[in-house]
Amino acid sequence: MTRRVRSWALAALAAFALAGAATPSFAGIITQSAQFLTSFSAFTDDSTQQTLSFDNSGVASAQMTPFNASLGTLNKVNINWSLGLSFSGTTGSNGGSAGTNHFGGDEYVNTNTYSTTGGGTGGGGAPGTSVSFSATNGTNGQYEFLLANAGTAYNAAIWSAFIGGSPYTVSLDTGSSYYFYYQGIASGTMSSYRDVVVSYTYTPSAVPEIDPAMGSSALSLVAGVLAMIEQRRRRAMLVA
Predict the structure, then answer these.
(1) How many angstroms separate the CA atoms of 33 and 51, rounded?
(2) For the residues 156-180, what does the mean pLDDT come to?
(3) Cβ-count burial of 167 within 10 angstroms (0-12 exposed, 13-18 middle, 19+ buried)?
């Protein structure tokens, strides 16, 4: 029992010593994300060009939760739209081709646009040729919002949405045109993704630091308690 009491007292001393040191500052990060995936494999050996279009008239939209001000001070917001498409297949009896265009579009926060992103590629060949390709938008879909740039680099209503009291939407509008075309493809698989990640970088609310004077008093108090416990232990040993 005596060992447990002394261990507690020593731990308390260490705790007060640590509390007296300056509290380190660090950045907090909160992320939210959404995915929009498509896949197609019903190819036919047709020499007439066929096309594929996204649902919802080409709009990918996700609802996001605004920053909780009780966590601290919001420093910046990053929105990253990551786009990718891949195809692997075989041309038909007369040869064929496939490709992507209009694979991208305007980026929005609610109804406020702030940037565009996208890309395209394709391939083809003689009859019975294996064809494969892929396309991404690289880092083109990344955008950083700073409070200092609100109203100049982007619409101030966007920052208001980040810190508002209601959910907001992030959207990518590729338009109603097709994003993939093919002709003379006997078989294959096309897959695409449109992923979005929203990140909040913030400074957490400060943890109150202990006044050094108060810390010294607390250390003295704990030391006195420890001395009293030690004296009682010795007396108990003498009586025994």
Answers:
(1) 29
(2) 96
(3) exposed
Quickly state the pLDDT bin for 27 (edges 50, 70, 90): confident
Please list, in sequence order, all residues whose beta carbon lies within 8 angstroms of the beta carbon of residue 19, skipping any fewer than 6 positions away. Answer: 210, 215
Tell me if 87 sits within 8 A of 97, measured CB to CB: no
In 3D, which of 141, 136, 156 has the Cα closest to residue 105? Answer: 141
Token pair of 155 as six digits: 């619409």
Query: Amino acid letter at 237?
Result: M
Q: How far is CA 56 from CA 46, 60, 238, in A?
A: 27, 8, 87
CB 178 within 8 A of CB 40: no
| DSSP-derived 3-state class of residue 71 | helix
189/187 Cα distance (integer angstroms): 7
